[in-house]
Amino acid sequence: MTTTTASVTSAPSSAPATGHVLAAAGRVLIAAIFILSGIGKIANPEATIGYIASAGLPFAPAALIAAALIEVGGGLALIAGFRTRFVALALAGFSVVAALAFHAQFADQNQFIHFLKNLAMAGGLLQVAAFGSGRIGLDKR
């Protein structure tokens, strides 16, 4: 009696070229919000520190630096397809933590929408983590 097993691979080499282009475009679109948010934090650190402190989080200046590094660095790495799976997982975790820390006032419809937006971004990033960068990116070089 013989058995066969199927292996699951990410972005098979036989996938159409359009799939790899779509994967790269998706990474760029997801990364854009992180990069712009990180640049905004760097451009106005006092407001960001105040916002972090108003959420009751400790070490607001250190949190600002960490958030800006994660957002800008992670966003650029995601676009480049560098360590894509790890970066996507890190950004997904960051998105969930930010949702819980800053947008968990569910009675406020605007905050609830931001909460869901963060969860949706985390979901998209989990897809990137599951399936990788595709052929377009530094991971494939």
Task: Produce a short descriptive summary.
With 141 residues, the chain is mainly alpha-helical.
What do you see in this structure?
- The protein has 141 residues and is mostly helical.
- It has one domain.
- It has five helices and no strands.
- α1 (17-43) packs antiparallel against α3, α3 runs antiparallel to α4 (84-102) and α4 (84-102) runs antiparallel to α5.
Helix run count = 5
Q: What would you call the structural class? A: mainly alpha
Q: Estimate nothing, just give the exact number of structural domains.
A: 1
Measured distance between first and last alpha carbons: 41 Å
Largest sheet at a glance?
A: none
Topology as a string of helices (H) and strands (E): HHHHH
Note poorly predicted spans: 5-9
- Whole-angstrom Rg: 18 Å
Shape: globular
Q: Proportion of β residues?
A: under 5%
Number of strand segments = 0
Mean pLDDT level: 91
- Fraction of helical residues: over 70%
Secondary structure blueprint with pairings:
Layout: H1 17-43, H2 45-54, H3 60-80, H4 84-102, H5 109-131
Helix pairs in contact: 1-3, 2-3, 3-4, 4-5
Sum up the structure in keywords.
single chain, mainly alpha, 141 residues
